[in-house]
Amino acid sequence: MAVNETVKYGIIGVGMMGREHLINLHHLRTQGVVVVCIADPHLPSQQLALELAKSFDWPLKVFSGHQELLDSGLCDVVVVSSPNMTHYQILKDILNHPKPHHVLVEKPLCTTVADCRKVVNAARKRPDMLVQVGLEYRYMPPVAKLIEIVKGGTLGQIKMVAIREHRFPFLVKVNNWNRFNSNTGGTLVEKCCHFFDLMRLFAGANPVCMMASGAMDVNHKDEIYDGKVPDIIDNAYVIVEFDNGARGMLDLCMFAEGSKNEQEISVVGHTGKGEAFVPESIVRFGSRMEGRDGVQTLKTENRLIKYEGLHHGSSYLEHLNFLSAIRVKGAKTPAADLNDGLISVAMGVAAQLSIEKGRFVNIEEVLDEHNC
């Protein structure tokens, strides 16, 4: 695809996150980007997306289903931001479609490891298509800076990665789909695939086994939908052991609105320690040799970001990166590929299973297709 050629996007699923993608893409219009069509069976979501697009002076063709959008031939790139449980069928239909569409699919890739594997296998047969998974936390300026510090060797060989997310409860989504494990894959898949992905990046390794403890202790207990009470956990501790000897720990609490930072990341190597804080956008790092007095504090920013949005500019940078990969197809692969999506889901599934069984879970247990 020529650098100056207009890239036409379609968005499948225009709920809260789909409309967020629409806004991000509008801020990329100077890069030769245009959204030409959307698909969503939910009329109120359609209407909100149409109003947004009208304010951007972008006329949209509206479809109620993704197959009609694909068959229209209107777009070159598809953003999949529909509910988690719909990802597999939509991705399957995109990958089987005669017309190639490059794909940015929101996390999690799918809700089960088995479905993720099927998508990975189907994508192998479509070398004419790029598929990137929406693990955009990698691009948050403080996180990206910490990744750079770690990869530069400043902290030595990484031994421990601790990620704390203390935040607000799950937001209300269309038809309350995100209140049930069967739709989301479970909180540790739906929410925490981001953090498992970051742990792998920081550790420079793959997971071997996981141990988790968690429950639904505060949120959603008095909610009932179609006679059913939500079953998504709202807090957990998760320990991960990696194949290079590094360890990771996740501390999740979704009833902690009284926090200064939503995410706090600590990475410790054999010669130093680094930390990232979101949304303060601060990075701290120091060495064992220099001690506390030698700790440096950086305020991070990325001047490329034209829209902060819901994720501190990371979605904008994600789109910028994906657009670059599309335009130099063959020379550059998506930053977060299907294997990253698969492993991040497998880690979430293993953690959920650990809570259910009350024991360590080997990652091979969930990666083994026969056990999926």
TrEMBL record:
Residue span, Gfo/Idh/MocA-like oxidoreductase C-terminal domain: 148-362
Membrane spanning stretches: none
Signal sequence, renumbered to the chain: none
Highest taxon of source: Eukaryota
Domain Gfo/Idh/MocA-like oxidoreductase N-terminal: from-to ranges: 8-134
GO terms, molecular function: nucleotide binding
SUPFAM superfamilies: Glyceraldehyde-3-phosphate dehydrogenase-like, C-terminal domain, NAD(P)-binding Rossmann-fold domains
Listed Pfam families: GFO_IDH_MocA (PF01408), GFO_IDH_MocA_C (PF02894)
Record's protein name: Gfo/Idh/MocA-like oxidoreductase N-terminal domain-containing protein
